[in-house]
Each structure stands twice: as structure tokens, then as C-alpha cells.
Prior knowledge:
This protein is of the alpha/beta class and 371 residues long. 34% of the residues lie in helices and 23% in strands.
Amino acid sequence: MNIRTVELREIRLRLVHFFETSFGRTVERRIMLVRVLDADGAEGWGECTAGEGPFYCEEWIDSAWEVTRLFLAKMVLGQEVEGAAGVGALMRRPRGNRMAKASIETACWDLEAKRLGVPLWRHLGGVRPEIPCGVSIGIQDTPEQLLEKIEKELAAGYQRIKIKIKPGWDREVVEKVRARFPDIQLMVDANSAYTLADAPLLRALDEFDLMMIEQPLAYDDREDHAKLQRQIKTSVCLDESVRSAEDARKAIELGACRIVNVKLGRVGGHAEAARVEAVCRGANVPVWCGGMLESGVGRAHNIAMATLRGFTLPGDVSASSRYWAEDIIDPPVTVTPRGTIVAPERPGIGFEIKRDLIDRLTVRTETLSAD
């Protein structure tokens, strides 16, 4: 593989409905897309999942744009590598910036799968042609609105419901949800909104038969999560704290979690995601695919990743229409009545890119070349 061109685009997509977490409320996504081309003109697409500000992690779209154009793209352009699996090593010198790196790395996987004429999910070693789906529902203005949204998503067939919590929007809300829906698969996501001092409150959630509590404590913590796990019955799931296979190994050895959420951007791309999955599977720790309000490009990559053997729990990969009036891929991602997504059989990510729509949504672009 020899990448000759890296094209960056920022598009803006307005959400169908605002999405609120403990970080704040999002109504429009600024998304960086990456298109790579080789010497023969074959192309691949990736998406940077960094947010509008440095709140989920230290990266955000503007930092990702700058580090990509000033450093990462130049490290990849014109370099001979055996395949997409080796692209990440070309960008090893800059520390962190995993979401920016993943946008290039995943685009290269798409390109390689297209050149081989195989679906990306099969090229990655996926074994599951149909993946189970859940939904993530943000903090609402009232508990009644939350209950209405859950009702709607269950009617659509989703197998698991995740609700966001934060101080002041936690136990009483979960109690109302469980009273209304006593038998659903239910989990909560705190996005690092609590401390170990809140263990009594988090322990009170044990009575609601939750699948898991996702990242309740600090974003970079494992030690306090291990202490918390020993104090509560509900499984702790780590998200922000696991950025690599090594992080996963250490967290599992500490007893900091019983479940791991894998996000492509957070771990730096498909190659590292597969390593995280392998570590967790070897330790009998289930993993699932988390979401970052991706457009169709990022969503397609998530589908491919979620077909790996260790992804046994319903992920946050859901239908395009839950987020966008019109997605940038064709066809849009849809969910079956049984709450699954069927992995596409076309080469690469398996969806057509709507170039005309992307052109209309683009607010800035930059093209870097090896020539």
C-alpha cells in the first residue's frame, strides 16, 4: 500500500434531536472526514470521531484537523507498507491523538478491502454477519420525555437501552425507567460524572438489575473503578479509561471492570481495536461497540468492527435516521425488526458515499499529496 493523497473535509450535520450527556448538549456535529487515494486512484474513507470540544477526551475536531494536516498525513504519504495493518505504526511518533490517527487508519482499511474486492468486516476477520443493536438515549428535559423515547426505541426493535446519567439525574430516573420497563436490557452511562465518594449512590443502583454502569468515575482512572467494582454488584464497564490493548489488560488484571466498550477513535483504529477485543476475549470479558454520534462513514466502520468474535453484547450502532435527516451514505444504515444490523456484502465499508451531499455540507477542505 502506498497512499498518494490525503483529503480532509469538515462537514456539519444537524441532529434530528439534541443529544445530552454529563458533558453538555449537542445539536449539530462538526465532523472531519478523511479520504485517502493510492497511486491507482483507489479510495478509502474514514471519519474522525472527535467532538466539538475537548470534553470526552483531550482531542476535538480542530486539534484533529491540525495534527492530521501538519504531522500525521505527512507521515503516511508516499510510504510503502504491506497493508492497512501497518499504517498505525507510521504515525507512532506523535503521542496520543488516537481519533485523528484512526481517521486515516480506518480509511486505509476501507481502501484495502475495496482493492481486494471483499467486505471490510470479512477482511477484518469478522465472524458475525448480523450484529445486535442497542440505543443510547441522552439526558432529556423531563423523565416523561425519556420514557416516551424508550417506548419508541423498543417499538423499533432495539435489544438494549442505554440511558445517560449525571448527578441529579440518576437513581430516581432509573427507578422510573425500571418501573415502566421491568424486563428490558437496561444500562446506564455516567461519562465520568461521579467519584468514589459516590459509591453509596452507585450501589443503590444494584436493585434495578442493570447490565452495567459505564465509566462512572474519572476518564483516566482504573484504580478507583476497581475499588468501586468490589463495592457494587452491577458490572462496571470501562470506556474512556481503555485506549489500548495494554490498558484493557491492566484494567482486567486490577478488577476495574467486567465489560469493555470499544470505540474505534478512542483506541486509534481497527488494528488496535482488534487487539483490545482479543485481550478481552482471552480473559472472558465481553466487549461491545460504543458510538460517538458518527455519520454514515463512521457508522459503517463500527458495523465492521462489531462483527468480531468478542463483540457479544448489543452495541450503540443504530439506524442513521435516529440521528440524521439524511445520512452521507447510500443506503442509510437500517435496523431490522429484530433489532439487528446486517453487515453489507459490498467491498470496503459496503456503502456508497454521497459525494454531492458531502460537497454541500463541506465547510472547509484541504488536500495533501505525496507529489
